[in-house]
Q: What sequence folds into this?
């Protein structure tokens, strides 16, 4: 059995595409099953959905092409199989967010010329930031124009709490100005 395993591993290593495909399938399974660990505790399960960890690893190990594929498919497949996340709007938004994680983690990791642990941290931080930006943009286009008003998008509370920047500044200054700007415009309906 050990010889057969060694032969199979040798053939997989010899064929890089097969290696990447097998590892992508493994990362997809991890993305589907890891949320069960945190989902058992409702308080933690609502805050932490660890689907992004295998997607980022897939982007770094297998490349951006596989990372974007696994990232886009994972929340949609999980929504179809387990009904969590809800397919629309959460599953669609997460699909674009995780696809951005896989894309930028793979691109940055493979393009950096340094060969130490900082390469991992740089690609991780950059992919997380761009993934959140993509999530906000997609969330704006999906949820931005609803029946409640022009601007019903909830900004994430990751902004610094300063006097001239932060969530209070956005709520107090930017929202009213945008509502006043769009007050006489007809809403755009999607779908």
A:
């Amino acid at each position: 059995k050990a010889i057969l395993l060694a032969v199979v591993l040798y053939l997989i290593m010899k064929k890089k595409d097969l290696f990447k495909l097998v590892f992508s399938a493994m990362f997809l399974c991890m993305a589907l099953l890891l949320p069960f660990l945190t989902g058992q505790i409702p308080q933690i399960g609502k805050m932490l959905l660890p689907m992004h960890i295998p997607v980022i690893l897939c982007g770094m190990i297998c490349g951006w092409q596989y990372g974007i594929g696994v990232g886009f498919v994972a929340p949609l497949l999980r929504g179809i199989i387990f009904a969590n996340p809800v397919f629309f709007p959460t599953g669609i938004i997460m699909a674009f967010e995780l696809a951005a994680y896989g894309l930028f983690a793979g691109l940055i990791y493979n393009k950096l010329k340094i060969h130490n642990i900082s390469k991992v941290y740089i690609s991780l931080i950059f992919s997380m930031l761009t993934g959140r930006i993509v999530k906000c943009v997609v969330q704006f286009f999906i949820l931005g124009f609803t029946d409640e008003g022009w601007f019903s998008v909830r900004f994430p509370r990751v902004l610094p709490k300063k006097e001239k920047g932060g969530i209070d500044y956005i709520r107090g200054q930017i929202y009213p100005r945008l509502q006043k700007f769009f007050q006489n415009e007809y809403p755009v309906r999607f779908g």
